[in-house]
Amino acid sequence: MPIPSRAAALVGLGLVGMLGLAARPMLGQQADSKVQRTDAGQPARATAATLAPAVIAGVDMERIINEYDRYKESSEKFKAEALQKQKELEVMLAEAKRLAEQRDQFGVGTPDYQKYSDLLADAQAKFEAQKQKVAADFTIRESNAVAEIYNDIRYVVDYMAKQKGISFVIQIGNNEKVSGENPNDVMAAVARNVVYHDPSADITDQVIATLNAFHSRRKAQQGAAPAPAPAAAPAQPPAGGGN
């Protein structure tokens, strides 16, 4: 692991440096091997004593996001709004189609043909502009929603890690074999940083339970409040999902 290996490297460099100094006693001074060994070993023992064993846990972020009630609610809201915007765009597209049909009733080069050609070009331009605006708006809103959901997850994971004395929480997947029928699954499995994890180190279920309990309590508090509360530290998440 990167951090322990870096710590070990620093300890090693410290020992090498101290041994190097011990091997070059000052001119005219006789080296005392016992003192040198004591001096060289003491910092190493002190450093080792400060490095507590790392406690590692894993979470399946995909599962957490998909099973987080706030994400489900946000997805349903986005779907409803997207369908509404799609209907509005379909109306604009139908208008452009109507103008095209009217234009084609006249001969090319006639004043009426040119008139409807101009109207059609204007309708098509408005349709494209609105389509791009809707796409950009939904992209930004989706990004903000995902950021808020991620921050919720990170907050709960941070809370649980501190409660349980966990040093690192890493992203994990499942330990199941990968089938070659779906190339995307194969590539995702190959790209994983963690090939195997001990199921006992997986706190995904506990995070999901705590996250949803926290979200439910927050919604209840927001619904009962007559006005937005002043900015303050977020409420402590309720315990959930076991130890």
UniProtKB/TrEMBL annotation:
It comes from Tautonia sociabilis. Residues 61-133 form a coiled coil. GO terms for molecular function: unfolded protein binding. The keyword Metal-binding does not apply. Keywords: Coiled coil, Signal. Residues 227-237 have a biased composition (Pro residues). This is OmpH family outer membrane protein. Belongs to the Skp family. GO terms for biological process: protein stabilization. Residues 219-243 are annotated as: Disordered. Gene3D superfamilies: Skp domain. One of its GO terms (cellular component) is cytosol.
